[in-house]
UniProtKB/TrEMBL annotation:
Gene3D superfamilies: 1.10.287.130, Histidine kinase-like ATPase, C-terminal domain, PAS domain. GO terms for molecular function: ATP binding; phosphorelay sensor kinase activity. This is histidine kinase. Its EC number is 2.7.13.3. It comes from Pontibacterium sinense. Residues 161-191 form a coiled coil.
Length: 446
């Protein structure tokens, strides 16, 4: 609106002109008044819209909103706070913020204002006095300034932790179930692999057991002869009779054979023990600490088991150092090696000749084990999917599609690498890289 208008007519003009001038001034004043009124109404409309907008946002918030002055007196709340406390906005306005919070958190709340001068408060857990009891909140507190930048209060937003805690519990339960299912899948695949090896292992056990069995029969015969000879001594037979009996029972030869029979029996029993330990290690579900283990023994054991089971002869060319060691869980790596060799043998089912090449070496303190077959190779479209769970190129009923996926997870957990690709000269090439103890310790320090 313009300032006060001067309506006094000039002295040097006549009365009619003076009134015309006065009317013009009045029109101008009225026009300014109308313009100002329109501006005020527009500002009021904008203010009302802004207020409605803010109110709708506050009402839609599921989080608690509390606005306080410097003394902690509540100056604004939202509907979420009314619902939690069971108190209306009128009842909450003017109350002290500390009256809404459990007593044990008052000292923490009283430090908010001082802390806000330095930085906002984030994720501070407090308990709100709700209508049905204490409600845990995760509180964030920010400073509130006036138009001059002076701190005049604080704005607090609290998220009830009940739903979050429930969600966390459900998430933890789902994670535990998923982990259990994963462990069962791993064990299931391990038992499936073990089942495929039973025939080969049975053949492997048959040799030392047969050797022990034959030696024990010989020892039993020698025992019967020795018992008969000792009975003759107890009966008081003459020296000549005992000598004749000794020659007849061939006791001198039996005595000479005893040591070799016992040693052979012990050797066979030790071999059975080794095979049983390998089986136990392979099928064990118990977690063990990582340690240095004989990778050469693991590779050769897996190879013997699978080759003995094969129905068709396979030409095996292996260049495995005798003192090759790696660092990790021997049982888990045994499962990986068995899976790689078994897959190579399966890939050569329709191939002729069947040739399996196994090699291992140490490069840059890493152990690299490679398995190459003389099969048809892997279609290019399948190479990127080999480690996907449940993906298999085998006919239905002959593969679960979990072997390579589980093997890849085991190798990754060991800090190693598993790569499968087609060899330029034909067939597939699987490369397993594991860390030595020195390289593993170096990685841990880094």
């Amino acid at each position: 609106m313009s300032g006060k208008q001067d309506l006094t007519p000039p002295a040097n003009i006549d009365s009619e002109d003076a009134w015309v001038s006065v009317i013009q001034k009045m029109d101008e004043a009225y026009a300014d008044l109308v313009h100002s009124q329109v501006e005020v109404e527009e500002k009021n409309t904008e203010l009302e819209e802004a207020r409605s907008f803010l109110h709708s946002i506050q009402s839609a918030m599921s989080d608690v909103l509390i606005v306080c002055d410097q003394n902690g007196v509540v100056q604004g709340v939202n509907r979420a706070l009314e619902q939690l406390t069971g108190r209306s906005e009128e009842e909450l306005m003017g109350a002290r913020f500390t009256d809404l919070i459990a007593t044990k958190y008052h000292s923490k709340i009283s430090s908010f204002m001082g802390q806000l001068r330095i930085q906002p408060v984030r994720d501070c857990e407090v308990e709100l006095i709700g209508r049905d009891g204490l409600v845990p909140l995760s509180m964030n507190c920010s400073p509130r300034h006036n138009h001059r930048g002076r701190l005049i209060g604080m704005v607090m937003v609290g998220r009830p932790l009940g739903e979050l805690q429930k969600a966390y519990k459900e998430l933890n339960a789902a994670h535990a179930e998923l982990k259990l299912a994963q462990e069962r899948l791993v064990q299931s695949e391990k038992m499936a692999s073990l089942g495929r090896l039973v025939a080969g292992v049975a053949h492997e056990l048959n040799n030392p057991i047969s050797f022990v069995y034959g030696n024990m029969h010989a020892l039993q015969r020698y025992t019967d002869r020795l018992c008969a000879y000792f009975d003759a001594i107890n009966e008081g037979n003459s020296r000549e009779q005992l000598k004749a009996m000794r020659e007849k029972l061939r006791l001198d030869k039996a005595i000479r054979d005893l040591n070799s029979l016992v040693e052979g029996t012990m050797e066979g029993a030790d071999r059975v023990k080794e095979i049983v330990n390998d089986l136990r290690q392979f099928s064990s579900t118990q977690e063990s600490e990582k340690a240095v283990f004989d990778l050469s023994h693991v590779i050769k054991t897996a190879m013997h088991w699978i080759i003995k089971e094969s129905k068709a002869p396979i030409d095996v060319v292996e260049t495995i150092p005798t003192d090759l060691t790696a660092f990790g869980h021997s049982g888990q790596i045994h499962q990986v090696v068995v899976n790689l060799i078994q897959n190579a043998v399966d890939a050569m089912d329709a191939s002729d000749p069947k040739r399996l090449l196994l090699s291992a070496q140490i490069e840059d303190r890493k152990v690299i084990f490679e398995v190459r077959d003389s099969g048809p190779g892997i279609p290019d479209d399948f190479l990127s999917r080999l480690f996907d769970p449940f993906f298999t190129t085998k006919p239905v009923g002959q593969g679960t599609g979990l072997g390579l996926s589980i093997s890849y997870g085991i190798v990754s957990e060991h800090g190693g690498e598993l790569v499968i690709q087609n060899h330029p000269d034909g067939g597939a090439l699987a490369s397993l890289t594991l860390l030595t103890e020195e390289r593993c310790e170096e990685s841990n320090r880094a």
